[in-house]
Design brief:
The structure is a homotrimer. By secondary structure, chain A is α+β, with helices and mostly antiparallel strands. Helices cover 25% and strands 35% of the residues of chain A. Chain A contains 9 helices and 20 strands. In chain A, strands 6, 7, 8, 12, 13, 14 and 15 form a 7-stranded mixed β-sheet that branches. In chain A, strands 3, 9, 10 and 11 form a 4-stranded antiparallel β-sheet that branches. In chain A, helix 2 runs antiparallel to helix 8 and helix 8 crosses helix 9. The interface between A and B is large, with 98 and 113 residues. Strand 2 of chain A pairs antiparallel with strand 1 of chain C.
Chain lengths: 427, 427, 427
């Protein structure tokens, strides 16, 4: 019991602090401070570098809706005079974070279930039925072979297939793009973000944007950086590509919305920044299966209920909206003393510097958020300063002329009795 | 060689520990312990705060499928008597993480390619052909102007456009919502999650849920918190909005599934928590382009193969399912001594406290996962305790009456010969 | 002023280093080193373990497109002879990161708005009109009840509903799957990734892949690990399931693309690794609402403009493409002395080891990226080594026979005058 109290007393009422050798040496002193400064510079550098690179796409909850507008007219021998509006060229009608705009197409009208010759090709051209194996359906064939070899046109014979007839002939893609006017179509992107941790939410249609402005504005990095309406042509150009090129074979464009919010400042400073990028990077040198296209069909039924369809191989641009929710936190001003203390030690307050004192200041508001960086910074920062001492010790104790003298001062050698060595000398 | 051995010997067989001044002072001792306790409280506070906020959306692989159910009936002069079921109001038929339910619409039937007057508007009303520029197609126009000015109705003349005729008139949106009965439709949300690191997977249809229960249950935070079937009306209300309001102009609702799994406990404790939130936050004060709508068309062909379509401007609610995979790790009980040691030092085991000893305990199972937090905690925790000493030193050496006495005890001053100063005095 | 200079001078030109007791004891010395080594092993272990587990799904910007190929033929009494191609079985025609392949279906042709008896079921079978409540529309009913009880067939009477008639009868699902041949369909997955931090981008169609190869190859973990074309059957098998089973009721398959890029090495070493996994884990023991299906309709209009539709309940497999962008960083070789120093201390350079020196080496290139791990490692690493000293102190000062002797050497006791205690003795 008493022992326990003694122990507790010792634990509570004793203060242990390491004994220090104070070496009054310009050389070493300066060296020490320099190393410490270097380390600090390094840490701060890190903090900054890292503060920039960090928590891109932090858990932000974002919702995106995209609305295309624009109408154009085509006049071809095949289709005749035709108007194309949103319901015609946006497929599917709605998606979660992206929108597809058809810019080019290979259309095959009035297909019906039946038998017809394949499109001539390496595997499909034939002399006799022997060349066609019944029932075979290769990955690239448009139907199931019947085994007969029939004439495709006067000169050429190809294997017959059971398929939607006539089969699609997509050997050449229209150049220029069929809906090249899509360059002038526009996208209205609505984006709402929400930071669960802060319960802070905002939309990219800023409070100062009026309905009138929204009706007329077009995004421009210089003049209208906050207008959420984008001209397709401009998007592609901003990404450094030519719209008419991409329109032919299609592609994927990324519309990046960066929310760079410093929650210390007013919410009105939390603004979206738009940037554009082609996501299906194609090195022209190595251009295997470029672009983006898919097939869909419109189904009709005629009088006697028989079904026929119009098959469309749609080339176009898919716009993926990518939202980065970046929350900046105030970088920690790492302060390496002299920290000032006022002490009322009897007489008038006097000012004392103290060495090796190291602390961080965070602004309160963002503090809740800075838990992890703070811990990392303080922990590693303090530990790193230790390196300074280690380095200087190395210099002082191993590299200076007076090293033996210094060692004698720093170290107290204690022999281990148990090893029956001589008594230790102490200073 | 021998030198090398000496060095290695020294390295291996020497133990260096700092020399300590033990100050038996109630004041300072208590101060020291207090500061240490504060720091610990702080760290633990952090750990907990941070443990809550951390690794929301940790790399969880999740798959979501949504299935809507419900049927309703409308009876309007335009459409007559009509039944609406899933295939009618879910567009598109399937999406990856979201589902769109049409609640309101502006329908334009029997559109054909042709020429017709524009809907009257600021830019479209005209007196003479001079007011209409041929070939122009503004962002908001429904077709390409022919340049003629034709009568829209008896009183009014508007520019003629080549378009899908008749052009859509969406000037007023039906109030109340056309499919207001959608309030009673239901969503069955199936969600499977998988943590790659743990190869732990689970689905939100819990093992104790029977087919019978699933046929009848409706989610309710109180009574049926684990029923994965949600009434649309309830979802919107839970988010604090009125379904009939949102149904008119549409919107985006978020269905959040939080998996809060402590993998130390049985998998049966790993349960989904549902919460709802309107993602397209609209401040009523500033209500520019609210809601969510898009256009799609159903295409038909009549006898002579001519195509006509029904254009639908669909207003509705998109439900985005957002999955948070949160893995709780057992918070580290930071223990600040007295840590107890039993030492068999010849006589009976005795108990010794030791100061400044600081450690963490983690449960083994989750340990694999807690690498990073553990390192952060230990590293920063140990470093932070150093601050206590620094602070107390400041007090003791600069602010206490006996500071000079204490300094004399702590410091040993060593002059640098090279600076030709006097010999140092040592105590 | 002068005071200030003194203070500054003291701060700059003084070097303070702790005084050390050097205990020449094999036992303790070895113990100390061992503990330090253990800690280091532990840390390194962590670093490696953690390096593996970390930054899976680091903020990589990825775009995915999927293209299905394949055609098959069915011959049923209901539909007769029919060909199915991409436009028929991919619904919707395009999605952002996934593709749905219909493998099975329940088709209901020529539905029109009207009145018809419900499918017999627990709630729908009736004797008299009294059993049917007019206007009721349960979650699972296919229409709105009229309140009449009509004969479903000779023997059975069910409630009449206003609905798309005839109502769908999905009581039994076709076995084997209607489009079982889908096993041989193929998916071409195109994936582009981009690391914003490094501005490094790559696509999964590697530079050495030629158009000819792409036309013929099929992914195989052994023979063709980099061919981006996947046979559906193989995907499902690789995930350890049977395609024909999953084809009947549908399901969700995950195609995981792991980019394991060490940016220190040439970009050509940055390669995609494919793995497959069934995401809708179904424990056969507890098989509630398995599989994946949804309904969609094709709308037709007959002569007099009346609308009819073909309702399809589509069962099938949704393939979600999941991209993990993992960037490996060179693991830090933690080196614990002897670190070598050359010092020109007048005479020939001599070699000194130094204890307790601890550093990391990072390759420059990835350094920018390793900020956070580096800070964590150094900070915690240094701090952890402190633990060694603490432990050994405990042993030396509390558990060794000569503990009092060692304590006397390590500690210097100072009484607090203010507590009126005796003078302190010092050695």
């Amino acid at each position: 019991m008493t022992g326990c109290c003694t122990v507790l007393g010792a634990f509570l009422f004793e203060y242990d602090t390491p004994r220090i050798v104070l070496i009054r040496s310009r050389k070493v002193g300066l060296m020490n401070r320099t190393v410490q400064l270097l380390i600090l510079a390094y840490v701060i550098g890190w903090v900054f570098v890292w503060e920039k690179g960090y928590q891109e796409t932090d858990s932000v909850v974002s919702s995106v809706t995209v609305k295309a507008k624009g109408v154009t007219m085509t006049n071809t021998s095949k289709l005749g005079f035709r108007i194309w509006d949103v319901a015609d060229y946006v497929i599917p009608a709605q998606e979660e974070n992206s929108v597809f705009i058809m810019t080019n197409m290979v259309i095959t009208m009035n297909q019906t279930q039946g038998l017809c010759p394949e499109i001539p090709g390496k595997t499909t051209v034939c002399e006799t039925d022997a060349n066609c194996t019944a029932g075979s359906a290769g990955t690239h064939s448009s139907g199931v072979a019947t085994g007969r070899c029939v004439s495709f046109n006067g000169t050429l014979k190809t294997c017959e297939v059971a398929a939607w007839c006539p089969v699609e002939d997509d050997t050449e893609v229209p150049k220029p793009a069929f809906l090249k006017a899509a360059e002038n179509f526009t996208l209205l992107v609505k984006n709402n973000i929400w930071y669960p941790k802060f319960n802070f939410s905002k939309r990219n249609i800023l409070p100062n944007i009026t309905t009138a402005y929204l009706k007329t504005c077009i995004y421009d990095a210089k003049t209208d950086p906050f207008c959420p309406i984008f001209r397709l042509g401009k998007i592609v150009e901003s990404a450094g590509h030519s719209f008419q090129d991409i329109a032919i074979e299609g592609g994927i464009m990324g519309i990046q919305i960066k929310w760079n919010c410093n929650l210390d400042r007013a919410a009105s400073f939390c603004l979206p920044r738009y940037s554009f990028r082609r996501l299906d990077t194609r090195d022209l040198a190595h251009n295997v299966s470029p672009g983006y296209n898919f097939r869909f069909a419109k189904y009709y039924s005629d009088l006697n209920g028989a079904e026929h369809r119009t098959l469309i191989k749609a080339y176009g641009i898919r716009f993926d909206i990518i939202v980065f929710g970046k929350v900046a936190w105030p970088p920690a001003p790492l302060v390496q003393s002299p920290v000032v203390f006022f002490c009322w030690s009897g007489q008038r307050p006097t000012l004392y510097p103290h060495h090796n004192f190291f602390f961080f200041s965070y602004r309160s508001q963002a503090g809740k958020f800075d838990i992890i960086p703070t811990m990392i910074n303080i922990g590693s920062g303090l530990a790193l300063l230790g390196v300074a001492t280690v380095l200087c010790d190395v210099i002082v104790l191993y590299c200076m002329k007076k090293r033996y003298y210094y060692r004698e001062k720093k170290y107290k050698y204690v022999e281990d009795y148990e090893q029956g060595l001589g008594n230790q000398m102490d200073q």
